[in-house]
Amino acid sequence: MEVLGIRHHGPGSARNVRKFLEEMKPDIVLVEGPPDADGILQWVGKEELRPPVAILVYQPDDPKHSVFYPFAEFSAEWQAILYARQNNIPVRFMDLPAMHMLAIEKQKREALNKTEEQSEDDVISSIQSVTSGKDEVFVPKKDPISYMAEAAGFDDGEHWWEMMFEQRRNNEGIFEAVGEAMQELRTVFPGKKDRKEQLREAYMRKVIRQAEREMFTNIAVICGAWHAPALKNMPKQKDDNELLKGLPKVKTECTWVPWTYNRLSFESGYGAGIHSPGWYEHLWNYPEDDGTRWMSKVAGLFRQKQMDTSVAHVIESVRLANALAALRQMPRAGLQELNEATWSVLCNGEDMLLQLIRNELIVGNRIGSIPDDIPKPPLQVDIERAQKRLRLAVTADFKEYTLDLRKENDLERSIFLHRLQILDIDWGQKNHVGGKGTFKELWRLQWRPELSVDIVEKGTWGNTVEEAASAWIIQECKDAQTLHQVAVLLQQVIPAELSDAAEFVGQHINDMAAATNDVLELVKVIPGLAGIVRYGNVRQTDAGMILSLLSSMIARICIGLPAACVGIDEDTAISLTDDCTQIEHSIQLLKHQMFIVQWQQCLQQIAYNQHAASMLRGFAVRQLMDYRILQGDELYNIFYSSLSKAVAPADAGAWLEGFLKGSGTILLLDDNLWQTVNNWVKQLDEGNFTQLLPLLRRTFAEFSQSERRRIGEKVKSGTVGTTVKVNKDIDVERARMAIPVVMQLLGYN
Amino acid sequence: MSNVLRQHAEELFAQELEELQKQDSGRRPANWKLTPQSVVTYLMGGSLANGFEVSPKYIGNRKLMEIAVATLTTDRALLLYGLPGTAKSWVSEHLAAAISGDSTMIVQGTAGTAEEAIRYGWNYARLLAEGPTEKALVETPVMRAMKDGKVVRIEELTRIGADVQDTLITILSEKALPVPELNMEVQAEKGFNVIATANNRDKGVNELSSALKRRFNTVILPVPDSIEEEMDIVKRRVESYEKVMELPAEPPALQEIRRIVTIFRELRNGVTVDGKTKLKIPSGTLSTAEAISVVNNGLAMAGYFGDGVLKAGDLAAGIIGAVVKDPVQDKIVWQEYLETVVKVREDWKDVYRACRELL
């Protein structure tokens, strides 16, 4: 038996494994991986199964908890399996089966949930009893390999491993060397032997013993380097069996799913994410490259992006990379040196361009593919389950549902449908519903077979609708360019009750709001948010997050708006006045003392700023008057000065328009206002009056016909409004007696 | 101690250079005083085999210094690029001191720098009297560095007019400087190279032509990564300044330095230290060098006009001066920052009050 200790997804390891197997000619290959998936190994070697792909092990009753085992072409495991399939010898996975792994995790979660109410001591002890059967030993937080790297003078374990094992050209006895190194580490850090690790290694030995019992003589074992010593020195069989007795189990299913290099660079089933799949693919394909081919690739990419890159550039960067390697006393330039050379020579020190290389070359954008006849993906399973649970029939005909959101089942249906909508799986269409109240929704559902394709496509975003919708929204949010787009996303996400995503989107809005210099953009977002805060309660959503968002945005608007009113043309002024009206409504709607105070201060600044657009000044004065901040002589003064002779008639007209914005009725009801306007008109001499007449006409033209008629009548009757005289001699006692009757007459009872 | 206001790097750190040279065992590029490894050690600091401590000159990413030194071992020139106040000239001075033992070969780039300042000039009295001879030739630092195989520094390369910049192309690619008047040329000795500095914030700079750009490897010196790193720099520099200027004030408490550095970092990065709130970014650079001068300024204020102890009030004017460069836009930025960030911090009340008073 030979044990080949490798690093997951290491191209050097993969090459060594391949070479070793070809020389060794084993009669069975055992690979670290979930034995649950033994059944689907038969697909490996088929033309349509192209890496990067992953084995997905999921619980059919709870797809949220699943494990991915990704493979790239340069994964040692993939090469080993491929070798076995091509040579028609048996290949088996030998890690602790996922059905046990998932069950143990489930127990852990349950224990955590259960103990939340208990005292802290209990929590610790019960977690320990689940996670470790024996005494807890010191567990190093760092990857143990990094200690070796440190001893060798490297700052990071991965870099050291790459230099030592992956880029090496002379590979004789390399697996023995790895084995010995790991043996040494394991004696220094026994700590990594927590219960799960022990179980995994025990199971691996069990599979090996099983193979031996089946009379295989030439066994090749491919496992993570760390486990190699544990498999070579077999302890007593009895101990292992003891350890593996009575493990919990859950039902699992496996399938192949396409994978991407991008996802490969995240942490995954092996707990070993890699940072640079594209670079590894390069190393796998061109082990002899001294950086020249890589730099040519980089130059090619730059040329594709319309950046001039000459051959001389490539020469210089290869030279610099090699000089750096020499300075660091390394035999050849690694990715780090090549990147630094690229940064300095090709990018002129700009990190932005290096990011491009990272995305396109170092990580790469390769997507794997899988044959069509492979079993169903979990997102589909989750959707079907939700359909059954919520009793939403899948039909080819239209079917309408009127949902009453006060009922729990209907609320859940609505949430589910909103989430599908977010994912662009447009099964349901939300229609406008008549009548009052915000608790009703009308949906029209029709299933189309093409939707399954959308589901498969969106499956990469998550295994449940909730997860996928959250991830999708978050991605959309990252891609969004304008504040408006993000605000729309927030409005989508609230009815879908995705609290994590909502929080993310909220944070994003906040960030964008801070970064934008365009107050006008902020202003447009406010009404929608205010609406959510005011009316969102039907959906039992927590409005607190949005409220805090609003408070910071309103603060920003109140600081920035006065400056935004300066130096704008008439059209912008008109639309900004409309927006301000909206804000005024929103602030009235929110009824929050702090907002009102800030808003009033902002209005005051606008009202007194001579450079601000006239219409907005008029608007601000009017609002301040309504708040009773501007009254009496001060109001007259500002009114007269804004409409005085020296002011250009166009400005004066705009001011009055802002002042009287949409409030003909108030002119009739409020005698103060009437008097102010009336006095002003009366003091105009004939010339000015004629001059201003067209502007005034435009202002009054916006009022409704009946308002205008009544204003006309009021002017004609000559009374300067009905002056209410306050009689100080009221008999309070007698007046109070009349109140109930008046209330009844007004319908307040 | 010498009475010179500011000594050259190779004089100030003569002992360190000597010690490094003594224990240096590796292979040195021709005409280099130290091996590349030792040059990096000189810049980044560290302890030598005999226990001698080399002080750090550049506090920041070691990789950048490695790239810079590796570049100088190839035949490409080095361009240090970055915001004002990110230690570009400082690094170039120390690189030249460590490599050539001489940081005085320097050309200051200005809008008025002429070709004669880079290639060679003439002593007109001699030129008229004797005609063009080698004696009438006035060497520039560039020409001298070529002859001696040393490193020459060109400060503020992008301020020099584009036509004058391009005279460097021949020097950098052919490593030769032709003198057609005398029908001769000066060929560079081994060890010659150019370190140029340029900043990327200024208006009215002359972008390098791509022909010239291609002959430089660029290293962008960033603003400090972490708040600790930046505080370390500010503290070191303020201390050395105090010594030179003999200020009557007490050395600043770490607390005050931390606050200044925090304000500068937050506004520069456009986000608060805890990462929770985004901020608008003012138009100024807010470099570490400016933080240093704000603290120095505050010390002078406290020493000569205050009670000798650095307080928020002594710093406020300096901070506002550094942040508000544009009276309209930056003022909004600063106001927002004061109201949304400074105001709510419990132990920053004095800063808030001091700044409010001045606004």
TrEMBL record, chain A:
Stated name of the protein? Uncharacterized protein
Pfam families found in the cross-reference section: DUF5682 (PF18934)
Alphabetical list of InterPro entries matching this protein: DUF5682 (IPR043737), LolB (IPR050458)
Domain of life of the organism encoding this protein: Bacteria
TrEMBL record, chain B:
A molecular function (GO) held by this record is: ATP hydrolysis activity
- Which organism is the protein's source? Taibaiella soli
Mind telling me which Pfam families this protein's record contains? AAA_5
From the Swiss-Prot or TrEMBL record, give the protein name: ATPase
Instruction: Name the source's superkingdom.
Output: Bacteria
Annotated PANTHER family: MAGNESIUM-CHELATASE SUBUNIT CHLD (PTHR42759:SF1), MOXR FAMILY PROTEIN (PTHR42759)
Domain ATPase dynein-related AAA positions: 78-216
